[in-house]
Every structure is written in C-alpha cells, then in structure tokens.
Amino acid sequence: MASQQAWMNNLFTNTGSSSFTEFLRGYAPDMLPGNRDALPAPVGEQIPHATTIVAITCAGGVVMAGDRRATSGNMISNRDMEKVFRTDEYSCMGIAGTASTGIEMARLYQVELEHYEKLEGRSLSTEGKANRLATMVRGNLGAAMQGLVVVPIFAAYDERIGGGRIFGYDVGGGPYEHQLYHSIGSGSIFARGSLKKLYRENAAPDEAVLTVLQALYDAADDDSATGGPDVTRKIWPVVAVITDEGFRRLPDEEVTAAVETLLAGRMIDPDGPTAPLR
Amino acid sequence: MPFPYASPEQIMRDRAEYARKGIARGRSVVVVQYADGILLVAPNPSKALHKISEIYDRIGFAAVGRYNEFETLRQAGIRYADVNGYNYNRKDVTARALANVYASQLGMIFTDSIKALEVEIVVAEVGESADQDQIYRLTFDGSVFDEQGMAVIGGQSDTVATRLKERYRPGAPLAEALDAALTALTEPGGERPSAAQLEVAVLDRNREHRKFLRLSGPRLERLLTPATPAAPETPAAPAAEGGPKPPPTAPEGDIDTGSEPPL
C-alpha cells in the first residue's frame, strides 16, 4: 500500500520526463516487471516459454506472425497463447522466451508508447520506439541471467519512409535493424531458412501473410516447441499487418482462408513451395 | 507587524472572485454529446498548446483558464489513468474516479493556497451507448457537476450555454452537433471561427482501441462546409486588419492569442 500512496501523491509532480517507466521507477517501483529479488535457483525450464515469431516487410508495410504454443520443458503448457501484441497504431511486437516476463514487458511497453504520445502530443519516431524497447530488454538482463530470458521483435510502419521496418534484440538489448525479414524464438532457424527462400521483394500484404504462415509451418515442422496450425481445434497463428492504414490483426476468417491454401499445398508437397534453382 | 484580520469567508470570496475573473477572460469551450459519442470544441488558434486532450481509451479532457495550471492537471490525469490501467485493466479506468482525483486536488489548492487554480475543466467518458456517456464539469474550487448531454466552460459560459441549448438536439449527427456548438460559440451576428482557429476532437464510441480522435485539416473543413452555406459579405476584412481579432464571445479584457496564459 505504501507504493500506492507514493504515486498518488506524486501525480501532480513534474517529473521532467514523459516516460511512464521512469514515473513508476520513481514512485511505484513495485509495479515494474523484473524488479524482484535474486531467485534462489535459476527457473529456466519450469516456466512456460513462448516460441517462434516471424516478421517480414511487404509493399507499404510489414507483416508479423507468431505461433500459438507455449512450452514448459517437454510439456505444452498452452496451445492458444498470443505472442504478437499491438503496441500502438503503427507498431507491434512479438515475444520469445519466458512467457510471463514477455507479456509483462509488452504490456508496459504499450503504456510507455501511449503515455509519451499523450503527454507530448506526438508519437515517438520509429527509431525512438525501437530504442525504448532496447532499454526495457536491457533492464531485464539480471532476470535473464536467472533464466527469465525474453527476446522481443519489433515491427513498425515508418511514415517517414512509407514502409515497414523490423528490429531485433538480444538479451543485452539492441536494437538491430533487419532489412527484409527476421525471426526469433526456438524455431527461428527453420523459419529464417524458409523466409530466405520465399521472400519476394514488394510482395502485396496478402502474399506476405502466406509467406509468414509458410515460415511458421516450416518452423513447426522441425521444432517441437513451435505449434503448427491446429486443424481440429481451428487454432491458427496470430497474424498482424501494419500499413499506412495502421495496425490490423487479421480476423479469423482471413487467416483460415490463408491457412487452408497453405494446407492444400502441403497435402501435395509436405515440404512446401520450392524456390527456383536459377 | 500585525496583519489586519480577514474573515475566512472574506478570504474564500476573494479567491473565488479572482479565479472567476481569470476564467471568464478566455473563450468558452463546448463539450456536447452527439450520435456516436462526445464532441469537444474549443476556439484555439494555437496548434501547439492544446485545450483538449486524450486522457485514456474512453476519456477526454477539456480545459479553460491558465495554460500552465490545466496542463499540470492534464498530465496528472494521464499519469493516474495509465498507472491504474497498467496496474489493473484498461476497463478499470473511469472518468468518475478521475474527476474525484481532480476534485480533491482542486479543492485542496482552493483552501490551502494563496491563489486558487484559474481553471475550469471537463472530464468526459464515452460509453458503450449514449446513456452511458458521462460528462463531468469541475470548477476551480473542486465542485463536480454531472452534466447531462452538454457542458460549457470558460468565457461567457452562461450566454454560450443558453445559445447551445436552443440548437442542441440529443442524438444529432456529428456535423449538426458541431454546427450547434459553433453557433453557440459565436456571438449573434459575429463571424464563425475558421477550421484553422478551432481545436476539435471527438470521443467516438465506434472506434477501436482508443476512442479519442482529433479532427483537423481537410476532415474538419468538410464537416464545416455544409454548415456555412453563405460566405460573409466582407471576407477580406479580417485579413486586412493583420492582427488577431478579439474573440467574438470574450468580454472586455486581454486578447486571447492562445499562446500565453490566460487562455
């Protein structure tokens, strides 16, 4: 209750910063994620882990998709988890690693961007947003050393260049801007191989959606922690498209149609589409 | 040196008088319900210093008076909403709770400080349907008024409110509500403020995520066009004067340029 008092008493204080995290750190540190005592032993495997996220640029924007599986060791702890989050009108992030810490980070990051926008009357630049997320990842380094690793991926539509941009991170922070495509999580190696072959320059957003679904399918094919399309339960990957019209999470019907196209192809050739040899 | 005795009543009266004068010097701001939500209209030539702002998903803020004073309130409101929304859930942030925070702060400053805040504010929340919309008006002494359908703050608020009541129709579409608001804000026979001199925003219940939306540029022009069928006879007159015109609804006093307090 002490922290409740502290932040309520300081609502009217000019903190000199438009950062929500800074305000919490000053007056309600208990609310910040990662602000915990050192754990007696690394937790690693026992906590659910989120797995593969892919993002690729397309004509006039960017597409991000994530599978729905969370695993604790060899157990599937959740089969319809959502790991791609809208962070503001023109950006989104995906998380891989410790699910709980990742979700908390995404939630704080959403407020962080919106808080700045409301106080300052303008949105952060795309680089500013990417850097801000890097700070949060770095803040989690202590917890990461204890096994609570979170590595996000950030994608945004940049009004200045009129196209999509993708940023990757490591446990120490970042950001690293990736041209064209990027993937994170346990199945990322397989997904990236798939994206490399299927990426088409300036593909229309609906083509790009099919590309990311193919990549996730390939990841699920070779990585046990990544979930493929769950045909019986009708659980499909979460797909987000960001263009100049803003963030749009594809509704179920649209994803269903794309997944059916994909499955029909895989019924004939289980390894999926092939890239031309020359 | 002993101070002359002043009764508490006298002190309060003086403070209220002082605050009231400051608030009446600016131009009025109108907050009114329309078919899809709540419309906020402020004559404000400044593009940088806002009188209307977003607080949270469903909550908007409008203020008149001293810029630095209501800006502090606005920022505090955003902090309050964001901390609560983060701590609990986005659904748990309400205009009523925020109005209470403002009321206690305004009331405390009114009694404890030498000078009351020269501000009057509106906290509006758009609901799922029109009967769940809430408009709270707060005055410098911390009084809260639960307004029905519309609120006018600042300037000659009584006169503007009277004019607004004549034109206002519950459930009116956006263009009609805006027309009513502008008619109310314009003195009879006076010239309406142009799109560039207006700050207009809506809390639109049909929007996803954040309901607050600023209307400006061509979008606002389009909304204003059908409402102004005939051009005034002397369109060149205001430009010829070269300087900012005194606001049509303001009483005698400082000219409100929107860039310096009092607004």
CATH class of chain B: Alpha Beta
CATH architecture descriptor of chain B: 4-Layer Sandwich
For this structure, the CATH topology of chain A is Glutamine Phosphoribosylpyrophosphate, subunit 1, domain 1
CATH architecture heading of chain A: 4-Layer Sandwich
Number of domains of chain A: 1
Number of strands of chain B: 10
Describe this structure in words.
The complex is a heterodimer of chains A (278) and B (263). Chain A has 278 residues and is of the alpha+beta class. Helix content of chain A is 37%, strand content 26%. In chain A, strands 1, 4, 5, 6, 7, 8, 9 and 10 form an 8-stranded antiparallel sheet that branches. A 5-stranded antiparallel sheet of chain A has the order 11-2-3-12-13, with helices on one face. In chain A, helix 1 (2-9) packs across helix 2 (20-27), helix 6 (188-198) packs antiparallel against helix 7 and helix 7 (205-222) crosses helix 8. The mean pLDDT of chain A is 89. Chain B has a single domain (29-226), classed as Aminohydrolase, N-terminal nucleophile (Ntn) domain (Glutamine Phosphoribosylpyrophosphate, subunit 1, domain 1). Chain B has helices at 8-24, 67-87, 95-112, 157-167, 174-185, 217-224, 237-241; strands at residues 29-34, 37-43, 52-56, 59-65, 119-125, 134-138, 144-147, 150-153, 198-204, 212-215. In chain B, helix 4 (157-167) packs antiparallel against helix 5. The longest helix of chain B is centred in the first third of the chain and has 21 residues, at 67-87. Mean pLDDT of chain B is 84; it is low at 229-263. Chain A binds chain B through residues 7-8, 11-12, 14, 20, 23-24, 28, 31, 86, 89, 107-108, 111, 114-115, 118-119, 121, and chain B through 48, 50, 53-55, 72-73, 75-76, 78-80, 82-83, 85-87, 101, 105, 209-210.
